[in-house]
Amino acid sequence: MFDVSRSGLAGTSIESTVTTLHQIYLDADAAVETWKDDCAVRCPEACGKCCEGFEPDVLPAEAIYLAAILARDGSALFDSIDFTSSGKTCLFFDPENPFHCRIYEGRPLVCRLFGYTGVLDKNGEVSFRLCRHISSRGERIFGEAELRRDFGALPPVMSRFSAMLVSLDPEGASSRLPIRVAAPLAAGKVAMLSRYAGLAWPPSPAIPLP
Length: 210
Description:
By secondary structure, the chain is mainly alpha-helical. The protein contains seven helices and five strands. Helices cover 40% and strands 6% of the residues.
């Protein structure tokens, strides 16, 4: 279980959201690993192409979770990032990092599932498309029948995990923001709660307090 006490969130209205989202993330990660074992699909070593030219939009709950991770570990990362910069690539992308991500533990759902999830077609059946960066001499698009035939299993479905995420905060479902906007806002909220709990998060110009 995620230790919310180290982020100053224990006993707050945010605690349940963070701990429940943590479990959703664990389930998503486990589902991806199971699918990897079933289908033997792997990202090319040291790829990171999916992070280039892409910045995820996140829900408020995802931003709060990320802020809680950072509150637990300190604000040095926030101090090193210019959230006012423009660009299409995620601010947390790090080509020198083995995970290509400076917030890997707190990365949002789309980043956890990208490349290893299926979608539902109009008939409610699962289909799966290989990432364009993964080489293959065979099929690149698989319907449910082909998935069962070739792999004996189905990939996790993005929309199902997304529905779990939205259920945490239905009112926030229409409040997706680019992570460069959402992260500082959430960090301000978590930093305030952290200080109330006596776990002062060092002041940072990147963290606007509410």
